[in-house]
Specification:
Blueprint (H helix, E strand, L loop, with lengths): L1 E6 L2 H8 L1 H9 L6 H8 L3 H13 L3 E9 L2 E8 L1 E6 L20 H25 L17 H22 L30
Parallel strand pairs: 1-4
Antiparallel strand pairs: 2-3
Helix pairs in contact: 3-4
Length: 200
Amino acid sequence: MFDIQVIDDPAAATVALEPMRSRLLSELAAPASAATLATRVGLTRQKINYHLHALEAHGLVRLAQERKWGGLTERLLIATAASYIVSPSALGPVAVDPDREVDRLSASYLIALGARVVREVGNLVRRANESGKRLATLAVDTEVRFRSPTDRAAFSHELTEAIATLVSKYHDESAPGGRAHRLVVVAHPLSQKSNPKEPS
């Protein structure tokens, strides 16, 4: 089972997003049969089998085990991943693309960058899994609380200069055997937690 599976096929995305099938995917973190799932979610085994066939046909669940009960064979299925995310490429030509965004300081541009990361890294992970190789990546995630807009602006300026210095130091366009990497640095305000109402 993968930690995360990126869905880039529109038909598979449609199947995964259907509420009951999404529920079945969550129930299949461990192998289970149609009969077991029917008891858990309150549907008939026939309806569960219908949903499972759709999930299996799109590679979202797979056979984990077969058990013989008398003259019957019980199939136990398991989800192919612990979590799923739909790639923007599943939306075809209307998918968000940072190359179409003009204002690079807008929230829309930031969202487009995030979407491109999902699309590109999803493709790389799939190819790495197919070839049995590990994909080398780097991610930094932290929080910073600025005292003022002035401090935020100063931080942005220093960060930009630091990145430019590092890139100029390590970037080599003509290095034989070198491989280009995409570096994306983003910052956005965190959602403010609503304060509980004071008792009257």
